[in-house]
């Protein structure tokens, strides 16, 4: 058989399905039903460059309940209330609720861009757009791990973000929109994000919980969820494979069920402490990142890291194993291979969430 003629999507889906079936006993009990909406974060299929309606169509194809549009790109520059109401209706007609997000609102972050004006103008725009599209929360980020090494450290960046949040409090409250700050790309550990929310005001600020990003701050995502659960408004989730490596610990994000997280235990916590919160899957897999925790200079990035939290992360790493990064098959166009890889990841993840973890409201 000439495997180079097979699409990456077909190959990965078939192989993963075989592994999953082999791992499940023949008499496996039906998944425990968990009453949470299930959907995906549009960044999971970023290579497709779909607009909002195309994303909604794919959500319907996967029998999702919700779609998380975490940047303004899929709205194609149509930010007026009438256009957003049309997108909202398009989703509602297909049984898909929408949640909205965007990027950094920290004006001193390495991630901040002036695409939407000042940080305050960006946040105000997102609040209005969220109300028009029917999202109860607007997702934002502080920045990334580089911000931990800037002047004043992450504490200063948190203070700057809190200031922006407070400036738009009355606007958010009047609109009935809460702001969901994500633990993003290694910027804040769970306790730091908790402090941000409390300082800004938990009456209108909460958390978009990202399980993959928790591992990038040297935390077991279950431990992070235990702390942040009372504040969680929405999610961008994926599985992690974590293992001990030459210089410390390596993390590779994976499709759901293909890493080393205890997902049933994770969702036991989630079900109990985050009632009504939608589960959105954001697979960004195929590459590994090593954290050189064995090198003393590394810890300058996390000067206040808690030993007990790191111990749980090390324990997680001992459960994992090294896996290979994604590589496009020989003879397959790289862009097409990446699209198929992303589609395969999200399809397997939604299937695992529904059939193994009992998530989703649709039959």
Concise synopsis of the structure shown:
By secondary structure, the chain is of the alpha/beta class. Helices cover 40% and strands 15% of the residues.
Summarize the structure in words:
The protein has 363 residues and is of the alpha/beta class. It has a domain at 33-239 and 262-284: Divalent-metal-dependent TIM barrel enzymes (TIM Barrel, Alpha-Beta Barrel). The chain is built from 12 helices and 11 strands. Strands 7-6-5-4-3-2-1-10 form an 8-stranded parallel beta sheet, covered by helices on one side. Strands 8-9-11 form a 3-stranded antiparallel beta sheet. α3 (81-93) crosses α4 (119-133) and α7 (190-200) runs parallel beside α9. The two termini are 37 Å apart. The relative contact order is 0.16.
Succession of helices and strands: HEHEHEHEHHEHEHHEEEHEEHH
Query: What's the number of extended β-strand segments?
Result: 11
Category by helix and strand content: alpha/beta
Query: Which architecture name of the domain at 33-239 and 262-284 does CATH use?
Result: Alpha-Beta Barrel
Strand order, largest beta sheet: 7-6-5-4-3-2-1-10
Shape: globular
Task: Name some characteristics of this structure.
15% strand; 3-stranded antiparallel sheet; globular; 12 helices; alpha/beta; disordered N terminus
Helix and strand arrangement:
Elements: H1 8-23, E1 38-41, H2 52-61, E2 66-69, H3 81-93, E3 97-104, H4 119-133, E4 137-141, H5 153-167, H6 169-175, E5 178-182, H7 190-200, E6 205-209, H8 211-215, H9 221-228, E7 232-235, E8 239-245, E9 248-254, H10 263-273, E10 279-281, E11 288-291, H11 307-319, H12 334-355
Parallel strand pairs: 1-2, 1-10, 2-3, 3-4, 4-5, 5-6, 6-7
Antiparallel strand pairs: 8-9, 9-11
Helix pairs in contact: 1-12, 3-4, 5-7, 7-9, 9-10
